[in-house]
Design goal:
Layout lengths: L2 H25 L4 E5 L21 H8 L5 E9 L3 E8 L4 E5 L2 E5 L5 E3 L8 E4 L4 H8 L7 E5 L2 E6 L2 E4 L5 H13 L5 E7 L2 E6 L7
Parallel strand pairs: 1-3, 4-7, 7-8, 10-11
Antiparallel strand pairs: 2-3, 4-5, 5-6, 8-9, 9-10, 11-12
Keywords: Membrane, Transmembrane, Transmembrane helix
Protein name: POTRA domain-containing protein
Organism: candidate division WOR-3 bacterium
Length: 209
C-alpha cells in the first residue's frame, strides 16, 4: 500500500473518529453515582442516572447540595466510564447557639446550622446578628462555657467575674484580664468596652435586711 493511500485513509478516518469522540462526550450517560465524605449520609440523593455525564450543570448541583447549611464544602468528579463522585464535608461546630429552646451548631465562621450532638460545647445566647464576635472570643478562651451576645459585644462569667468584652482585641484583653484575676481582686465585673480602659466594679454583697 502506497503512502499516498495511507494518508488518504487517515484523512477519511479522522473526521469519523472525531465525530465518535464528540458523540461520546455529549451522550455518555451517568451509570453510577458514588457519595463520599462525612456528609454522604445527609446529601439529598438526586436522580442523576441516565443523564448526560458531561452536560450536567455541576454548579447548579453544587448549589442545591449547599442549601443544607450542615454541609460546608462539595466537590464533584466525573469519570469517562459513566461514574460521578460527590464528595461532601460537614461543618464542624465550635459552639452551640440556643434560640427559643432549640440548639444549633455554630462553626468557626459563625454559620448557624441544624445540629444534634453532645452538649460539651460552649453555649451562645442573645443577639444572633453579632454571633461572629462570640465565636471569635470562644476561639481564644479555653475555659468559657456560656457567652451572651449584645450589640456591645459578648458577655461572659469566668472564675466569679462578669466580663463585658466589647467588640475587638479579645486576645490582648484576655491576657490583661487573666493578670488582674491572678492579682487577687475580689469577685466583680470587668468592663472592657472602652479601648485600652479597663473598668473594674467590685461585686456588692447583700446588705442588711
Amino acid at each position: 500500500m502506497s503512502k499516498k493511500r495511507i494518508k488518504k485513509g487517515w484523512f477519511i478516518l479522522t473526521p469519523i473518529i472525531l465525530a465518535g469522540m464528540l458523540a461520546y462526550y455529549f451522550f455518555m450517560p451517568v451509570l453510577e453515582v458514588v457519595y463520599t465524605g462525612n456528609g454522604r449520609d445527609i446529601v439529598m440523593k438526586g436522580n442523576l442516572k441516565g443523564k448526560h455525564i458531561y452536560r450536567l450543570n455541576t454548579e447548579r448541583l453544587r448549589g442545591e447540595i449547599l442549601k443544607d447549611k450542615r454541609i460546608e464544602n462539595v466537590r464533584l468528579f466525573r469519570f469517562p466510564w459513566g461514574m460521578v463522585v460527590i464528595h461532601t464535608c460537614l461543618r464542624t461546630p465550635v459552639a452551640v447557639y440556643i434560640e427559643k429552646g432549640e440548639k444549633y451548631g455554630v462553626d468557626r465562621n459563625g454559620v448557624v446550622f441544624q445540629w444534634e450532638g453532645v452538649d460539651t460545647l460552649p453555649e451562645i445566647k442573645g443577639n444572633k446578628s453579632y454571633i461572629n464576635l462570640a465565636v471569635s472570643l470562644i476561639r481564644i478562651l479555653k475555659d468559657v462555657d456560656k457567652v451572651y451576645i449584645t450589640e456591645d459585644g459578648p458577655v461572659t462569667r469566668m472564675k466569679g467575674y462578669r466580663i463585658l468584652w466589647g467588640r475587638s482585641e479579645y486576645r490582648e484583653k484576655a491576657r490583661k484580664t487573666e493578670l488582674l484575676i491572678k492579682s487577687g481582686l475580689p469577685s466583680g465585673e470587668f468592663d472592657l468596652r472602652f479601648g485600652d480602659l479597663i473598668i473594674y466594679r467590685e461585686e456588692v454583697k447583700g446588705g442588711k435586711g
